[in-house]
């Protein structure tokens, strides 16, 4: 398994493909190198849609830009750039609780960040891509290899 098939991409990183953010250029360059479909959970799909809609609510993009971004995301789903991955949620949530007990006291991870690392582990994806510094450290501690991107800044804390 190489490239996209082996990589779990945090939805906040995928969002950078649809919204102009500081890390968008790096994410676009990475995605251009990866031709395989990327796995996205149903939860991840909802997170991307909500992120686009939240940007419109906050006024960082126009309503028209939000419609265009949503249409682009829907097109990418329809054309196979993403593969919706079914996740056994009970197992993922159990894994997330275990990761939280072990690493959150020292790393300060947020619940969604832990859930995405647990999802990668449950889906058998050995590589992890995120721009969030704490989530990167959690993924590394959990035994995942980090996808090659430029070194992240402070992360996407919102």
Tell me what you see in this structure.
It contains 7 helices and 5 strands. With 158 residues, the protein is mainly α. The strands form 2 sheets. A 3-stranded parallel beta sheet has the order 1-4-5. Strands 2-3 form a two-stranded parallel ribbon. Helix 3 packs antiparallel against helix 4 (63-78). The model is unreliable at 150-158 (pLDDT under 50).
CATH superfamily: 5'-nuclease
* Average predicted confidence as pLDDT: 92
Structural class: mainly alpha
- Proportion of helical residues: 55-70%
Quaternary state, please?
A: single chain
CATH topology: Rossmann fold
Tell me the span between the first and last alpha carbons.
Answer: 33 Å
Low-confidence stretches: 150-158
- The assigned CATH architecture is 3-Layer(aba) Sandwich
Taken in chain order, the helices and strands follow as: EHHEHHEHHEHE
**Count of individual domains:** 1
Strand order of the largest sheet: 1-4-5
CATH top-level class: Alpha Beta
Number of strands: 5
Q: Quick one: biggest sheet?
A: 3 strands, parallel
Strand content: 5-15%
Rg from C-alpha positions?
Answer: 15 Å
Total helical elements? 7
Shape: globular
């Amino acid at each position: 398994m190489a490239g996209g098939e082996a990589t779990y991409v945090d939805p906040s990183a995928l969002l950078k493909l649809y919204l102009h953010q500081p890390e968008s250029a790096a994410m676009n360059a990475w995605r251009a190198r990866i031709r395989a479909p990327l796995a996205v959970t149903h939860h991840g799909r909802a997170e991307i849609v909500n992120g686009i809609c939240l940007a419109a609510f906050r006024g960082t993009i126009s309503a028209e830009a939000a419609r265009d971004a949503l249409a682009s995301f829907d097109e990418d789903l329809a054309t196979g750039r993403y593969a919706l991955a079914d996740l056994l949620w009970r197992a993922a949530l159990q894994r997330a609780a275990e990761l939280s007990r072990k690493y959150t006291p020292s790393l300060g991870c947020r619940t969604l960040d832990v859930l995405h690392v647990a999802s990668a582990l449950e889906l058998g994806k050995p590589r992890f891509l995120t721009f969030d510094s704490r989530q990167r450290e959690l993924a590394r501690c959990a035994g995942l290899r980090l996808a090659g991107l430029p070194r992240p800044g402070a992360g996407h804390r919102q």
